[in-house]
Recover the amino acids of this structure.
């Protein structure tokens, strides 16, 4: 568990283990589940920039409710390594994939006053 302030880079701490998983197995699929589409989009950009520098060949995708059914099907059936999604779209639609996913990264949001 990592607890720190807003916008301090907590989400980015998972990049290394996720890319290690993909580098070890090019067929691995790791869903990154964020509570908000804005976080999905933000993290997707950061991961794509990191992947460009790393050159791992990882295929990253965004899988949210704004996609058409045809776009979602293409992602489910195509090659994918890191899938950025939210709880509404990710958990039940990816749970039936074969081969099974390597790991989950769930980004919870806990706020206190």
């Amino acid at each position: 568990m990592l607890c720190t302030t807003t916008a301090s880079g907590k989400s980015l701490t998972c990049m290394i283990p996720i890319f290690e998983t993909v580098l070890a197995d090019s067929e691995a699929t790791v869903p990154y589940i964020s509570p908000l589409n804005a976080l999905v989009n933000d993290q997707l950009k950061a991961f794509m920039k990191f992947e460009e520098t790393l050159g791992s060949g990882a295929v990253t995708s965004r899988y949210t409710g704004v996609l058409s059914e045809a776009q979602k099907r293409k992602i489910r059936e195509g090659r994918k390594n890191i899938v950025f999604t939210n709880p509404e779209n990710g958990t039940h639609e990816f749970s039936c994939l074969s081969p099974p996913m390597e790991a989950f990264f769930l980004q919870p949001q806990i706020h206190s006053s």
